Amino acid sequence: MHGIKLPTHKHPLYPAPWVSRCEGCPRRGGYVKDGYRCYECAFFFHKECAEATLEIHHPSHHAHPLSLVLEWPGPKYCKLCGEFSLNNIYYHCSICDFVFHTACAKNPPPNVIEYPKAHEHSLVIEKDLYHPRCNFCGGGSRDMYYYRCSLCSLNFEIRCSMLALEIDYPYHPKHPLKILTKEEHHFSDGKCLICGEELRLKFYHCSICKFSVDVGCVRDPPPLTILFPKAHEHQLSLTPRKISFDCDACGMAGDRSPYSCQQCYFMIHQSCIDLPEIINVNCHEHRLSRRLHLSPGSWVCGFCRKNVDWSYGAYSCSTCPNYVIHSKCAIRDDVWDKLELKGIPEEPQDIEPFKVIDENLICHFSHKEHYLQLNEEGIISGGSIRCEACVLPIYSQAFYSCYTDFQYFSIDVKCAMLSESIIHESHPCTLYYNNNTYMECASCNKRDCQLFSCDDCSFGIDKRCATLPKTTQHWYDEHLIFLCYNKNKRGGEYWCDICEEQIDTMIWFYTCDSCCVTFHTECVLGDFSRFMPGRIVTNRNWGIKAMQTSPDFLPRCYICHTRRAVPFVLNLCIPQNNVFICSLECLITMKLHHLGKTVASRFELATAAVASVFLGFGSLFLLLASGVYV
Q1: Residue by residue, what is the 3-state secondary structure of 516-556?
Q2: What contacts 345, CB < 8 A, 6 or more positions away?
Q3: Do 73 and 139 form a contact (C-beta atoms < 8 A)?
Q4: In angstroms, what CA-CA distances link 21 with 16, 225, 356, 521?
Q5: Model pLDDT, residue 267
Q6: pLDDT (0 to 100) of residue 402
Q7: Which domain covers residue 140, as residue numbers?
Q8: Which of 217, 389, 442, 534 has a 20 to 30 A CA-CA distance from 347?
Q9: Which of 183, 204, 219 delimits the end of a domain?
Q10: Where is coiled-coil annotated (predicted)?
Q11: Which residues, other chains included, contact 377 with Cβ-Cβ below 8 Å and sequence gap of 6+?
C-alpha cells in the first residue's frame, strides 16, 4: 500500500475505510465512508476534500475565482458554515478575503429551503445579519450565512436547518429519538453511544432505552457493515449498543459499539480497524509488522515490559523472533513516527552500540575509524584518562581505548555498552529504558519519567545515576572511593567529609573503606564534572572553560561567595571581569539577576554551547545513538 500525493496535503495519504473528522470541513462529525488519512499529521480527509482542485469558480462569489490554500496564517472562518479551525484546507479569494471549506465550496447551500425539517415555514439564505443567533442550537457568528424565516423572525445555521426535532434512527429502530440540550443529559453517561465522544450542546436521545447519539453520528452514521481485509478476513457488522468486550486487535477493553464478525466471534474497536500494517518504532531497530495474533507462548511487550496476550493482535519483528509490542503501545505519539511503511523498501540499518571484533577489540559507533582495545578492570590510571561519553575520570574500572598515533580516545565499558537495556550492579534484574512512567530513582530518590527500570521490582535509576562511576577519586581523600548501593542495610548517622553535612543513607553515596569516611555524590562529582576540562567556549569577547580544583586552587564563587570543595568550577571570562562559578544554581542566578539584557543574551548563547563543547560525546548522545529516545 503506497501513499499517494495530492495537492491538498504535503505528506503521502493512505486510504481509510471511513472518516469521522475531515481537515477540509472541520467539526462536521459523524462518519463518511472512504477517505484518506495522513499518519504523520494524524489528519483525516473526506475523499472529495482530499481530491479538491486547485482553483474553482463558486456561485456564492461570482466576482473572482477561489484558490486552494493549504496553510492559513491565523484564524479561519468558513463564510458558508461559519466553522473555525486552525489546520484546515480552504478555498480563498485574496481580493475579497472570502474563505470557504472545500466541502462547503463543492456543495453550496441553496438560496431557499422550501420544506426545512427544523421549522414549519420556508427559509431564505441571509448573508448580512447584524446580530446573528441560531434559534435552534443557540450558537451564532457574523462570519457565516444563515437561513431566516421572515414570518417568525427566526434564524437557523445552515447545518441546523435540516435537522428535525424528532427522528427515526436506523441504528435504534425501536423508538424515535428526540433532540435534547446538554443540560438534559443527566440520565446518560454523557457520551455518544456510537462513537464514544463527549456529547455537545445538542444531541438525540431515547429516554426509554437511554440511547444517546451526537448530531454528527446522526448526519453521517458509520457504515452498518464493512469489509476491510487489513483488519479481518470476513465482513464486520456494527453492534450499536453498550457492550463490554476485549478488542481482538489491541487486547484493550471496550464498552460500546464494536464491529464484530458473526462467523468467528471477532470483535474490534472502531478506531483499531485501520491500524497501520508496517511501522518503525523508536524503541526497536527493525520494522514491525501487525499480526492478527501471535503464536502460543509467553510474550513481553518491548515498550511497557508487561505481558502480551498471544491470542490478541500485536506488532512483531521478523528479524528478532522474540520481540513484540502491544498495538496501543506501538502507535503512541512518543513511540511511532506516524508513517505507514507497507510497500516502501527497507533501508539497511546499523545502530548497535558496537560490533565485537574479537575478545579484546570492538568497533564502536562513536569511533568507527579505529578499533578500540579492552583494558581490564583493576588497571590503575589515576584519573588521568577521561571517558569520552560521560567525561568522568577513569580510575580502576574497565575501559576501551584507541592507541593510534593521531587519536587519543577512551570510553568506559559501562558507557560503551549503554543501550535500551543494561545490567547494573545495584540490581539483579535487567533494567530497560522507560520514558513513559514517573517513578522514584533508587539512587537519588528524585522522581523522573526517563529511567532504566524493572517493572517487576518497581526499581528504576535515572540516566545520570545509571552512569555514576563505581569508583572515583576526590582530592579530599588520597584513596579510591566506592559508590555505596546498599543504602537500606547501613544504620547510624553518616556525615559528608567534604561539606560536613549529614548524609541521607536512603540515597547512594561514596565511601572510603580505608579511612571510613563518606561523601555525597554531588560533593564528589559536582555540577561540572561531566564537562571536558581544557575545552573552551568562545562567543565574541566571552570565554568559558571548566577548571579542576585542588587544595591549592579553590576560587571563591562569584554568586554565593563561598569556596566550595567541588572538583570543577566554571571560569567565565567576560569584559572587564574574570569570575568563577561553583554550581549550575549559581550559573542560573547569575543569568537572572546579575546580567543586563544584552549581556544575558550573549550569556545564553555561551551557556547553550557549553554542552556541545564541554561534554565530549555525552551520555545523552550515547542514549540517542543506541536507539533510546529521551
Answers
A1: CEEEEHHHHHCCCCCCCCCCEEEECCEEEEEEECECCECCC
A2: none
A3: no
A4: 12, 20, 51, 54
A5: 92
A6: 78
A7: 112-161
A8: 389
A9: 219
A10: none
A11: 396, 397, 398, 413
Same domain, 264 and 306: no
What is the CATH number for 321? 3.30.60
The residue ranges of the chain whose pLDDT is under 50 are 405-406, 488-489, 595-630
* Pair (609, 545) in one structural domain: yes
pLDDT reported for residue 603: 45
Grid coordinates given for 630? 529521551
Alpha carbon of 432 to those of 357, 422, 456: distances in Å? 26, 7, 11
Question: Residue 419: what pLDDT?
Answer: 64
Segment 283-334, tens digit of pLDDT: 787 889 998 888 888 898 888 878 899 989 899 988 888 899 999 888 887 7
Q: What is the pLDDT of residue 2?
A: 63
Judged by phi (left if over 0) then psi (alpha if -120 to 50, else beta), residue 212 lies in beta
555 closest CA partner among 566, 541, 544: 566
Written as nine digits, the cell of 299 is 510474550
Report yes or no on 458 lying in a domain.
Answer: no
**Alpha-helical regions (H) of 450-500:** 463-466
Residue 482 lies in a domain: no
Q: What residue has cell string 427566526?
A: 154
Q: What is the pLDDT of residue 83?
A: 62
Shared domain check, 102 and 77: yes
Cell of 520: 555525597
Residues 147 and 184 in one domain: no
In terms of residues, how long is the chain? 630
Query: Number of structural domains, the chain?
Result: 6
Residue type, 63: A
Amino acid of residue 170 = P
Query: Is 546 within a domain?
Result: yes
Alpha-carbon gap, residue 206 to 525, rounded angstroms: 68
Task: Tell me whether residue 471 is in a domain.
Answer: no
Asked whether the beta carbons of 197 and 217 are under 8 A apart, the reply is no
DSSP for 161-222? HT--SEEEETTEEEEEEEEEEGGG-TTS-SB-TTT-PBP-SEEEEETTTTEEEEHHHHHSPP
In 3D space, the residue among 403, 401, 382 whose CA is nearest the CA of residue 393 turns out to be 382
Backbone angles phi, psi at 178, to 5 degrees: -110, 145
Contacts of 189 (CB under 8 A, 6+ apart): none
Q: Is 540 left (phi over 0), alpha (psi -120 to 50) or beta?
A: left
Q: Residue written as cell 587519536?
A: 407
Looking at this protein, which amino acid is placed at residue 268? I
Distance from C-alpha of 219 to C-alpha of 226, rounded to nearest angstrom? 19
Cβ density class 359-374: b for 16+ within 10 Å, e for less? eeebebbbbeeebbeb
Q: What is the pLDDT of residue 393?
A: 73
**265/286 same-domain check:** no
Q: Is 153 left (phi over 0), alpha (psi -120 to 50) or beta?
A: left
DSSP for 82-136? --EESS--EEEETTTTEEEEHHHHHSPPPSEESS-SS-SS-EEEES--SS---TT
